Automatic annotation (TrEMBL), chain A:
GO terms for molecular function: metal ion binding. Coiled coil: none annotated. Residues 1-19 have a biased composition (Basic and acidic residues). Residues 79-187 form the Peptidase M16 N-terminal domain. This is Putative Zn-dependent peptidase. It comes from Tamaricihabitans halophyticus. Residues 1-21 are annotated as: Disordered.
From TrEMBL, chain B:
Residues 16-132 form the Peptidase M16 N-terminal domain. InterPro entries: Metalloenz_LuxS/M16 (IPR011249), Pept_M16_N (IPR011765), Peptidase_M16 (IPR050626), Peptidase_M16_C (IPR007863). It comes from Tamaricihabitans halophyticus. The keyword Transcription does not apply. Pfam families: Peptidase_M16, Peptidase_M16_C. This is Putative Zn-dependent peptidase.
Amino acid sequence: MNAAHRTAEQIGRTDRGPRELPSLSEQRAAAELNYVDTVLANGLRVLAVRLATVPMVELRLRIPFAGTGQGYAARAEVLANTALTGTAKRDRIAVDTDLALIGGELDTRVDPERLRFSGSSLSSGLRTLLDVLGDALVSASYAEDEVERERDRLVERLAVARSQPSVIAREALQRRRYGDHPYTKEIPHAEDVAEVTAEQVRELHKNSVVPRGSVLILVGDIDPERAVAEVGDVLGAWTADRSAPELPVLADVVGGDLQLVHRPDAVQSQLRLSARAVGRTDPNYPALQLANLAYGGYFSSRLVENIREDKGYTYHARSALEFNPFGASLLVEADTASEVTAAALLEMRYEFGRLGLVPPSESEVDDVRQYAIGALLTSTANQPGLASQLDALTAVGLDPEWLRAHPGRLAEVTTEQVAEAAREFFAPRRFTGVIVGDADLLWDALDSLGGAQLP
Amino acid sequence: MAAPELHKLTLDNGLRVVLAPDPTSPVVGVSVHYDVGFRSEPEGRTGFAHLFEHLMFQGSESLEKLAHFRHVQSSGGMFNGSTHPDYTDYYEVLPAAGLERALFLEADRMRAPRLTEENLANQIDVVKEEIRLNVLNRPYGGFPWIYLPQVLYQTFPNAHNGYGDFTDLEKATVDDCAAFFDTFYAPANAVLTVAGDITVDGARTLIEKHFGDVPARSAPARKDFSEPAPQRELRQVHPDPHAPLPAFAVGYRMPDPVNDVDSYLGYLVLAGLLTEGDGSRLQQRLLHREPLATEVTAGAGLFGPFEARDPDTFSITVVHAPGVSTDHLLGVVDAELAAIAETPPDEQELAKVTARWAASLHREHDRVMSRTLGLGSFELLYADAGLIYELPERISATTPAQVAAAAKALRPDSRAVLTVEPGAGDAGQED
């Protein structure tokens, strides 16, 4: 390195001195969306949007996929892992080959709410992409050997997943706030997976992989009219006499003590706090969205500036809204070294209280408003981002017009409305949650702080 | 891919600039790539390049601590930085109205960052939390990127842990920071990239205004990190108390990514052939025909391709069932490589890999952030931002013989094998 370097003081100043921050220039709005939003004869809603940034197309298919009872989550997970392993026309390798030759990918994931096919290809390959998808929807074969192999692999992958502290924390939080509701069964139990048979998976596919209630989104370098016609051609044969199964109503999150989950020898703890919130269809949503950003929803928030940039307790702290079919919940999370876990919790709670008592100022609200509007613009300026946004909106019955109008809604929120949302949704007593970590190191401090309980 | 319009210029202080106007986008991306990564950090200061990256966000002459984040975000934008083996990048993506602000913020910290005791101490704590989160407290943390180079390479720059040891991080001083900045953060050692909703003339004027008076300093002579390839198979065991399943990574040396691009691309295509998709050779063999493994991946570069100069690493990682030996699985890998070396793949098998590559490059181009960073890193490493748009064609031109040659060069007697030994079962406990 440079032996004759300047000192830090010399580096940090110039003769001219500090300069003034330039102002923002004029922003032009995002282009109007060119789209077709329609429901096919088989009950499938299709939303096709032209965004010709690159010669690609993004695909999202969401099928409501709720179920109850012992082993449901395991059968659903095995289905998701084998839906693309062979059909009446294609074996596993043919599926992969046909997709690869159009630069395509197609994945299947399931959670307690829905089954989702998600993929992309060169836009010139749209017909093939739809054909592979339709083939799986209508005639996925779930061959015995494929199901057995994926099932065994899944058991191993579950063991890997459950060794992740973030997954341990997630499972504990779901139990803590929603009890035994099917919504909590995000990751099946290995012993249930081990018992799933190909016959059960075929039965589940027949009953639940259905078009009515499902939504297909295409975003890309496409002609929306023609794309919808192609979907009609290719997926018209996908029919069923029933609708896709929706989740039973989820109770609101109720405040309470944090549950300590013991993870021996952990060097870091996971703090996960949650409270009831409202979703995008609620009139209070824009104000809540801004209050959440001010609390911990972006880097320049009170929480991050406090526990990361001031105190160095954490690398990762954030607050976010988690949406479900009935509304939303607030999720506040941080990972902290064991010795500062209780202190970090104290600050998280302090900031809850402060958000209501010393609500975001006019300039704080302006900052989060600009951030929310800009982030929406940026995240919907590319095909995968727009497809994912539309996927989330259509899940609660909204359409692209909501997206177009949202900057206007954010612009109208007043400082007083943000303060009201802060008082209502961030009251400390409304939160429950979990702490995962080494209880031997954590308990004394947590006990003296109060509001936490041993396993 | 049709190459979009690219403009390049160099300021008097040596700062190289790439402009990529795109009238279809309402947003802009701004990035600065500095030609220094963790391979350049001094011995006894492991992790310093990354720690210093954190400090570059902590204020500069015109900006108090926290101001950088606030100005970007209150302009509707996002930001980040990341440290790589051979470069460190910083970026903002924001609505186009914020272009001048982003340029101002980058110029201010290129000219006069505030390097203080207080910020250094705070960011050492933050970086330690980052390492606990990503390495120490999770299964397979740092596998294989931290541990494999320690086996494959002999010299400090290539072998050491780029995240850093806590003891080294704690020793870092403000004077180290000043020396590092003066040596490596000269404008002549950096590339500024601006992409998205800009005009060339407008952007050039703003760049001159904000970066033009950053004083010139000479760029350091670039160090040669080359070292001989191993002359035998090198092995090491890495105990991982959190890991539930055994795993291993094999590391090989590969052609010079910058001076021998076409050979390098042969390895890239080989990686796709081995592990990309259900029909790939190793997925077929290890996940389906003889289901011994849970995951298998292969790739050029431990952080992805085109991220480093020579020497770069080709790796294959396998997570597998207990009771299956590393040697058995290595035998399978070697047999598959030998098969490709002997019978070059047919055109269709190559076409699958090259079409997926073309598609993934389109997707990267679609996101302004990855487009901006891609152009910047190609300009920095290859002195050719436009190469990124030639890649689909260059990859498509890869011949079966090139891929066979790459497979043949991945020899058992010149590689590193890192085995993960799962811990004593305290991980994965539910309550």
